[in-house]
Amino acid sequence: MFKFIFLILLLLVFVAPLRRFLFWLIVGRQIVKEQKKYQQPNTPVRPEGEIKVDYKPNRNDRPNESGGQYVDYEEVK
Predict the structure, then answer these.
(1) Cβ atoms 44, 38 nearer than 8 A
(2) What is the rounded distance in angstroms from the CA atom of residue 43 to the CA atom of residue 33?
């Protein structure tokens, strides 16, 4: 009976830390790698005031502007 209780106590004492360590080995390393990858800046640092345009819209994408009629208006205050 004493051996049985002793075995259960040993399991309770060592299973939780062992499980935590195995989880870190399997999953924790991948999480650390992904965090390091996203913390590194992947775009070069530009000096202040420099402007960069990434997208220039295509003129053919605009709706047909020839339709409709232009109405001149006068602002009333």
Answers:
(1) no
(2) 19
Q: What pTM did the predictor assign?
A: 0.34
pLDDT, tens digit, 9 for 90 and up, residues 13-46: 888 888 888 888 888 888 888 888 888 766 667 7
| CA dist., res. 9 & res. 62, Å (int) | 75
**Structural tokens at position 3:** 């051996």
In Å, what is the CA distance from 22 to each residue of 10, 16, 26, 28, 40?
18, 10, 6, 9, 28
Contacts of 52 (CB under 8 A, 6+ apart): 46
CB atoms within 10 A of CB 28: 13
